[in-house]
Design goal:
A hairpin with a 7-residue loop joins strand 1 and strand 2. The chain has 17 helices and 25 strands. 27% of the residues lie in helices and 27% in strands.
Length: 487
Amino acid sequence: MIDGEKTLLPLIHFDATHSWDDLWNLCAPFIEKHGASMLRQRLDGIARAVAVERHYIDRDYRDTFSHYHSKRFNTPASRTLRLHFFDQPITRDDLLTGESARSAYCGYAVIRPTRPSCLGRTMISPSKLPDLKGCLLRTCREKITLQGTQLEIEAFPFISQDTDATVCAQSALWMLFRYFSTQYAHYREIRPFEITQLTKDYSVGRLFPTNGLYIWQMGEACRQAGFSPVIYTRKGYGQSFDHLLYTYIESGVPVLAATKDHVFVVVGHFSDFSKAPAAGQRIASSHFNSGFLINDDNCLPYQRLPLVSGASNFPYDSKHGVDSLESFIAPLPEKVFLAAEHQQKVVDKLLSDPVFGIAANSPSLAACPLVTRSFLTSGRSFKRAILARGMGNPTVAEVYRAVPMPRFVWVTELSTQAEFPNKAMGEVIWDATRNEHEVDGWIAVHYPEILALDTGSALNRLPDVTKFTLDNPVSYDLYKSNLECLT
């Protein structure tokens, strides 16, 4: 059924009489083969109704149109289409009242009049996609107004390149920047043309049509956009490279990952806890990683990135693999001075310390193989989760809630093979505004038997450690505020 085919908002239902081909007819001449294929592959069997919003003015396409496309002899249209997808049949009355439309809303895709790729700003809810079950990922929330009705979507932004004003580098930067500006008020919105301008003083040759960016140019764009980027290369970090990438994703920090000739955004990860434990007394949670989730501008949104290229049979796998990554950029907030590799070193040293280490303070953890899980979070978010988690002992929860914490903290949770991945037995909290040479940068060391708190540093004084003996400790939930788990 097609309701209002000649109106500004046709509404199509996929049923016995109408299909995706009829939708593409409504989208002519904006839609092109590649973009149509990507949308259908991602949403076929999920979307049951689509509202076609004609004459939509998309701020990102209008930005590139004004600065580039309008200067061409054969000028494309300045307006776009926006497709709104629903997983249940809806009527115009449903759109007016909003209730049914809100629960059935899967997201939207802007269709711009560009070739060879027409997919502009796109937000598809990953919770509506069954192939992502079990994935942990980062999303942002956006409110959309459709003819006066407010809808809401939680997703990770996606855009395809247009090969002129944007290629893979600019598209990946746009996805990263748009996530941060949508999720956090203190990051401003950066549009496609400005992304190119961020690197104009470091570019070789013309800006438009663009030839892409080197990894260091992308890092510079992140810095000028207000981040404190750290660039990692497989050659420079060797076996730690994959672990560091996992650590940032576990921290809820989307990263820009680059192969030899391509770049995309890593937004989440998958785990396989049936893997045999690694040898040794201490196991990092990255050992159980089975792949990442990426947004690749050349492909459909939300692709699995397997550990080894071509080694997986999932229908939405990327042709790339973690083994093909050569570098990545972690866009850290400016107040994070301690990078992941340095945090790993200082925590390892602390856990082996003769005074504050495991052997000297925790017979229960020293007696079994340890599983550690490290992540970055804000002190405020960590405190918000304390009440629900309990922290294993009322004293720990009370002290953590009372003690001043910096804007960002590194946390290494301590668990055992029997308790992981559900429960923790303790944690090390480290001040992320310190550096790796400050050995007294930790805030707290919590084992089942004791809590050691540096009250001096917390009160902006010289280190002064207070120890609390803990009775009747129990395990407690892992911290889960960084990533959303799709069930």
